[in-house]
Structure formats: structure tokens, C-alpha cells
Design a protein that fits this description.
Helix content is 37%, strand content 21%. By secondary structure, the chain is α+β, with helices and mostly antiparallel strands. Bound molecules: adenosine-5'-diphosphate (ADP). Adenosine-5'-diphosphate binds next to strand 1, strand 3 and strand 5.
């Protein structure tokens, strides 16, 4: 089909409001992709066309591990064609249906990903406005991907969004009342409903009669099951506060004790660099299809998002690499704090390296006692001293007057180590506070070796 020359369609994945979604193989990289065929006859109506255009505009500029990636857009006489990341495990909604209730630990893992994606949207001044399990797809490794941005709206300073939208059970009181409302808080309410639903296995506001349902939502009264912890109950009450001004914000959620609880992975997200990855450009040029292009030409295409097979190949390869890195997480994770994103540019200038603000971490299968003994031994070996802030938080720096020997790091360094229990193992997180990046990395590398050799 015109517009799909580089893809082989394998099967239909589903059909949506505007057309079919097909599973296909990208013939250059052999990667699996999802192709959304939006029938032009369905978008004749201007409001539908606006929705499709909005989705494309938003997805083109987004790059977040919990938001569906758009690789390429093309069109022929019949369809607008969206080539997207293929998400293999179906809708979150079906997973909830199959599984029923989730434990707080599991729910936290999913919830953090949703908040991370939504916070990212808000930081780009976009509010999703239709957060619900049907709009979250599940990928391998329990990774969630937010999709369906058709109802999203760009936020403008001081301007309240006027369009009412979303699914009634997940819609906030200000939406169903048809009031003018400020965008971001609408998403907070819907995320509260999702969190409740995955913990309770039922909706907080549910009535078969729509008037009763709306009255219930507006009252903000819902019952909290007896087995919910105090912390999650507190978070839910704050998220499901009818008055949007008093409702908890995304950044407050990220700092809420239930969200930051140490018993599982930390509230960090993996954020890939927005800069051009020249290693991926090189990989693209290795395909015979692109043999006649120079590195500079390919870089220009990618930089300017030119509609060209090199750009789609680049986007696909970048994603494949990112996914394989995410799978490597089971041994070694590289992610950084949501809040540190802003600082990146400054440090980038200081050191001329883009990865300077990364937080490093890895998993460890040792028993708690052995882990701590080995950790302290490794720190001592590197000539560091430490302060135990609490059982799971250690602050280290160079020892003030230790004998310097060849195992000791001379440069001044400071970093924090946080330890989280995750399933059957521990995750050690290292946050560099000061000192040259490579020196800190060297020490962390030694600690990693010490903890991984029995
Ligand atoms: P709707 O218009 O109803 O929101 P979509 O057109 O986005 O639905 O998708 C229809 C179905 O196709 C979804 O329910 C989902 O099962 C499947 N699907 C959509 N996008 C993807 C994707 N990127 N990867 C895998 N499956 C997908």
C-alpha cells in the first residue's frame, strides 16, 4: 500500500474509533511496529480531524518511556498512516479485568509510571483529559504506555479549558459540571480513580444511572476499603478532592510518602537524551538502503524530522535500543530524577557531557546483612567515609585523614547510596552529589564488582 512500502503487515491488532490498528514488520530493521490506519472518510468531520491532528502533533514531540512513540506519519488517498511503537501485552484494562485487585506494591509500580507520563505531559503544557485503563497499554516487563491524545489540549497561561470530555467514571466534578476548569488537575482526579480501581478492583464512583453517578462524583464521597494502608488512603482522598484548587498536584503526588515509599523501585524515570544519537545514525547508515547518504545528511534529516525512511529507521532503532536497556534494568539501571531534568543543561555546559546528571543503580541478590557488610567494605577500600542517614540511606565522601594508598580515590567526591527492596532483591541507587563524574563512576563500578562477586 502507498505509504507503507517499508512495512509488511502481519495481522490486525484491533480497531478503534477511526480505523484499524495493524501489527507490521519494518522491513529494514525487522522491528515490530503498530500501524494505525485512520480512514480519511472518518475524519471528514472537522472536529475529528482536529483530534487526529492534535494526536499527531503531540506524539511527534514527545519522548518518554511511558508514552507511546510515534515513528512516522504518512498518508495516501484513503488513509492517514501512523507508524507507532508496538506494545505487546494489550490494554491495561484487560489486565485489570484478568487480575482483579493489585497489591499496593504492584499498584505503586504502575501508578508511578502513569504519574511520570502525565507529569511529563503537563511539563510540556499538555493535559491528557482522558486518563483511564483503556488508554494505557501494557508492554513487556509491566511497562505502561499512555496513548490516545485525541482529547488532549494545550494549556495556555491563565486560560481555562472549556471543553468537557473524558469518560464519565474517570471524569472530575468540574468536568461533569461543565465548568471552566484548569487542565492539569483534571488528570490528577482521573489518576486517582485509576489508582483506586487497581487497588480495590472496583470504581470509587459507580452508578448505572448517569444522574446518580454525576451526583456521586460531585459529592466526592467514596468508601475506602478496610485493607487500604493509611498512606494510600490519604493520597486517594487528596487526589479525589472535588475542588480542583484544593486537589493535590502532580509534583505533590511525587513527594507523597506512599509514592516515595522505599519498599520498591524509586520514583525515578528513565529519560533518554533529546540530542541526536550518532551511534544510531551510524547504525542506520549500515543498511544498504541508505548507503548513499552521508552522516551529515542523515543527521540533518533526523534533526528536522524530515519525512524520510532514514528518520523512521532512526526512531525505530532508538526505541529498540531504549527497550533493550530497560530490560537490562534487571542488572543495571540508569535513570534520573524527574526533578533533575531542568538542571541538566547547566551541568551539560560545565562538563560538556550530556549524561552528567544520571543516577546510577543496580540490583543485588545478596542477603541484607551481607550486602551491607560488602558495601561498607567496598566504600572503605575506596577511601570513603560514610554517614548512615537511615537504614536505607547512606551518605559518603572521601575520608578526611585516611592513609592514601593505591586503592584510594584522591579526588574529592560525594555521593548518596539509597537501598530499596524490590521483589526478592535489593536495588542500590547512587546519586552523585559532587566530584568528577568518571571518578564517581569508577568507585560505583568497584562497589558493583564487590557486590556481584560472591
Ligand atoms: P481507540 O480509537 O478506540 O482509542 P485505537 O485505534 O487507538 O483505539 O486502538 C485500537 C486497538 O488497537 C486498541 O484497543 C489496542 O488493543 C490496539 N492498539 C492500538 N495501538 C497499539 C499499539 N501501539 N500496540 C499494540 N496494540 C495497539
Amino acid at each position: 500500500m502507498l505509504g507503507l512500502e517499508n512495512y509488511t503487515v502481519l495481522k490486525t491488532l484491533g480497531s478503534g474509533s477511526f480505523g484499524k490498528v495493524e501489527l507490521a514488520e519494518h522491513s529494514i530493521t525487522k522491528a515490530k511496529v503498530a500501524i494505525k490506519l485512520i480512514s480519511k472518510s472518518s475524519t471528514k468531520d472537522p472536529s475529528t480531524e482536529i483530534k487526529v491532528k492534535r494526536e499527531i502533533k503531540i506524539l511527534k514531540k514527545f519522548n518518554h518511556p511511558n508514552i507511546i512513540r510515534l515513528y512516522e506519519v504518512s498518508e495516501n488517498t484513503k488513509y492517514t498512516i501512523l507508524v507507532m511503537e508496538y506494545v505487546s501485552e494489550g490494554e491495561f484494562y484487560s489486565l485489570i479485568e484478568r487480575r482483579g485487585r493489585f497489591s499496593e506494591e504492584e499498584a505503586r509500580n504502575y501508578f508511578r509510571q502513569i504519574v511520570s507520563a502525565v507529569d511529563y505531559c503537563h511539563s510540556h503544557r499538555i493535559t491528557h483529559r482522558d486518563i483511564k485503563p483503556e488508554n494505557l497499554l501494557v508492554d513487556k516487563g509491566n511497562i505502561l504506555k499512555l496513548c490516545d491524545f485525541g482529547l488532549s489540549n494545550f494549556l495556555r497561561d491563565g486560560e481555562f479549558l472549556k471543553t468537557s470530555c473524558g469518560s464519565p467514571n474517570y471524569a472530575s466534578p468540574e468536568v461533569i459540571s461543565g465548568e471552566k476548569y484548569c487542565g492539569p488537575q483534571v488528570d490528577v482526579w482521573s489518576m486517582g480513580v485509576v489508582l483506586y480501581a487497581i487497588l480495590a478492583g472496583s470504581l470509587p464512583f459507580d452508578e448505572s444511572n448517569i444522574t446518580n453517578l454525576f451526583n456521586k462524583i460531585k459529592s466526592g464521597r467514596f468508601s475506602i476499603p478496610y485493607n487500604f494502608s493509611d498512606e494510600v488512603s490519604d493520597l486517594l482522598k487528596r487526589m479525589l478532592t472535588p475542588n480542583p484548587i484544593l486537589r493535590i498536584t502532580c509534583s505533590q503526588i511525587i513527594n507523597h510518602p506512599w509514592f516515595t515509599k522505599y519498599s520498591t523501585l524509586p520514583p525515578f524515570i528513565y529519560v533518554s537524551s533529546r540530542n541526536i544519537d550518532h551511534h544510531i545514525i551510524e547504525k542506520c547508515l549500515e543498511y544498504h538502503e541508505f548507503a548513499s547518504y552521508s552522516h551529515r545528511q542523515a543527521t540533518e534529516f533526523v534533526k528536522n524530522s524530515v519525512q524520510h525512511p532514514i528518520v523512521a529507521t532512526y526512531n525505530i532503532l532508538l526505541d529498540v535500543e531504549r527497550k533493550s536497556k530497560a530490560i537490562e534494568d534487571s542488572r543495571c539501571v540508569v535513570y534520573k530524577s524527574v526533578k533533575k531534568v531542568k538542571k541538566e543543561n547547566k551541568i551539560y555546559k560545565d562538563y560538556g557531557k550530556e549524561h552528567n546528571n544520571w543516577v546510577f543503580g543496580f540490583r543485588c541478590n545478596l542477603k541484607a546483612r551481607t550486602l551491607m557488610e560488602k558495601l561498607f567494605e567496598a566504600l572503605k577500600d575506596a577511601g570513603l567515609e560514610w554517614k548512615i542517614i537511615d537504614n536505607f540511606f547512606i551518605r559518603t565522601r572521601n575520608a578526611s585523614d585516611t592513609e592514601q594508598n593505591d586503592r584510594t580515590i584522591n579526588a574529592i567526591i560525594k555521593f548518596d547510596v539509597k537501598i530499596y527492596k524490590y521483589e526478592e532483591c535489593y536495588v542500590l541507587d547512587f546519586v552523585r552529589k559532587s566530584g568528577e563524574l568518571f571518578t564517581v563512576m569508577e568507585v560505583i563500578g568497584k562497589i558493583y564488582m564487590a557486590l556481584s562477586c560472591e
